[in-house]
Q: What sequence folds into this?
């Protein structure tokens, strides 16, 4: 994660995504819960199940899902396949763009 400057990784078992590991998961579980050990596994740290939103869903629906599940990231699915991720930061950026357009009008 550090090497690629990313804040999360989707965890896949066989052909199915089953969870996510975030910076917060690592800090919480390896620090506060003190489960870190050299032989610790991603399965002990990850959050599961993976919370998703359909690619065609409105931004407001994605926000509701995030709020309802107390998460900052949603994986985006299209036709059942994982195609991306949307974050709170993405939604905030898009909301700001809308406000800027409205202000210009």
A:
């Amino acid at each position: 994660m550090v090497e690629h400057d990313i804040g999360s990784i989707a965890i896949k078992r066989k052909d199915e995504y089953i969870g996510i590991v975030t910076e917060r998961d690592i800090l919480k579980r390896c620090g506060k819960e003190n489960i870190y050990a050299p032989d610790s596994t991603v399965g002990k740290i990850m959050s599961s199940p993976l919370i998703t939103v359909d690619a065609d869903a409105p931004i407001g629906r994605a926000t509701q899902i995030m709020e309802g599940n107390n998460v900052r990231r949603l994986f985006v699915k299209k036709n059942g396949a994982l195609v991306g991720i949307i974050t709170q930061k993405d939604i905030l950026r898009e909301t700001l763009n809308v406000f800027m357009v409205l202000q210009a009008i």
